[in-house]
Every structure is written in structure tokens, then in C-alpha cells.
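I would like you to sit down with the pair of lines that follows and say whether C-alpha cells and residues agree.
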Amino acid sequence: MIEQVGNVKINMEFYLGEDLYSDGDIEDEILDIVKNNTDFTEILHKDSKWSILYHFTPLRRNLLEWYNFKKDSSILEIGAGCGALTGLFCEKVEKVTAVELSKKRADIIANRHIDKTNLEIVVGNFNDISFKEKFDYITLIGVLEYAGKYTDSKNPFVDFLSKIKVLLKPKGTLIIAIENKFGLKYWAGAREDHTGKLFDSIENYLDDGDVRTFGKDELTKILDGVGFNNLEYYYPMPDYKIPVKIFSDEYLPTIGQIGGNFPNYDQQRYIFLNEKTSYDNIILNNHFDFFANSFLVFCKK
């Protein structure tokens, strides 16, 4: 049930023998990279593929490197991907439990952080896993939007969050990073990140697929309905994936602080308007939080 890769434990108890999520052959390349490299700088310089940039750029760490985690605490990282933030969490807290749907991605995480003595990876669908402990922090970084795909329920987002809430300690914190369905980049010509369709989130996903994001009011109502009524919103720019600046309700941007037009690294985009001048106008009218491209939310019970 337990595999050992260096110092890292891979818990296979809840793995059903099939990887439920995969980016395809690129994951074999990524596994080879983490087995044979500890510094990814040269690889980033040589390989221009989005998947390589996304999984290996150190800018990913900007999202939470600044956050004051309690050192003697525990984190449950749901949907750890290829471990871009897992190493940061191992540096910040006493114990990290990473959940990943894919055995191959679990192998990538383990080999990438092979020296970490405080890391356990659990392979399987979070909804099928039983945990014997509660956590100080639980993270959903680019994960909540997939709840409708991997949670068999009439109210998948609510039920997914409800199960997470049970696993938090009384003073625990849920950390969510997710795209804003009304992000200015979507009005300006960027395709919806998950479906690749223009205006898909703005039109509220007319094809009614399993993957969806939310506006600030929507997300707040969902979280409040589950019992997370103490929320702190932050706004990573240009988005949570590769954040360069992070604003908050206590420190909103001023005119001139937001650049543009931002690239879509993973797919081609149109440019329908000047995002910089548009953001300046939005900031002037006090609506930045509605049009920010993504959210970083700290949620407490």
C-alpha cells in the first residue's frame, strides 16, 4: 500500500488502478526531467512549451511564498499536480499530505521532492479517501473548478467543500485559488482557460460542462452556504498561475499599477481592447475586484 521514493511516501490504498487525470505524453517528459534535474532554469530557457513553463517556473511560488504559515502545522494539498507548490509547503510547515488523482503525477511529485522527510502523497480521488486526522490548512489551487467533474453529486461544489470543511481543525484555513469568470482578460479576447471558448464563462457556460469558475459574489455565497463566513480575498495578477503582483481588499491597485495586454501562454488569444487603460478606468470606478483575472481566498469557519 505504501511506496517509498527517497524520503517520500506514496500511499496507494485508495488508488483504483487508473489515472483519472492526465496531460498526456508530456508527463513522461516531466517525470524524466525531475528524475534527472534539481535546477530547472536551463530547461525553462530551452523549452518553450506551456506545460514546461507552468510546472517549473519559480514564479508559481509567488502565490503563497509570502504567507505566514504556522511552522508547527499541517497542510492537506488537494490536487497537487506536478508539485510546483508542494516543495514550498514542505519548507513552510511540519507535515504535508498531497492528494493527486494520477499515479504518474504522484511519481513526479515524489521524485521532484525526493529529499523531503515531511511529505506523504495519497493517490486517488479525494472524495474516495478516508483521513484519520484534521489539518491546519487545506489548499485548492486550481482545483475547485473541477469539483463538478470528480464529485458525483447534484450539488458537487457544495458537497466537495462540505467534506473539506470537516477535515479542517477548528481554527483551520481553506486556501482557494481560482479564475474569476468575469476576469477582464476574457472580455479582452483571451479564451476561457478550461474550455478554450471565447466568452464562455461570461455567458455562464452555455454548454453546461462539468468544469466552471465563479464571480466573486457567486463564490462568496457558495462558501458562506457551506459555513466559511470569514473570507479574505486577494487578487493575483495577471493570474494565480504565474502571479507577479498580488493585491487585496485592503490594498487595491492604483491607476498605472496593472499592465497589459497579458499573454495566454497555453493558447492563442485575440486582443479586443487595451487592458492597461481598461483596468485604469475600472480602478477609477472602484470595480477592480469584479474584473480581476483570478482570486486567492483564505476561508475560515
About this structure: The chain has a mean pLDDT of 96. The chain is about 30% helix and 20% strand.
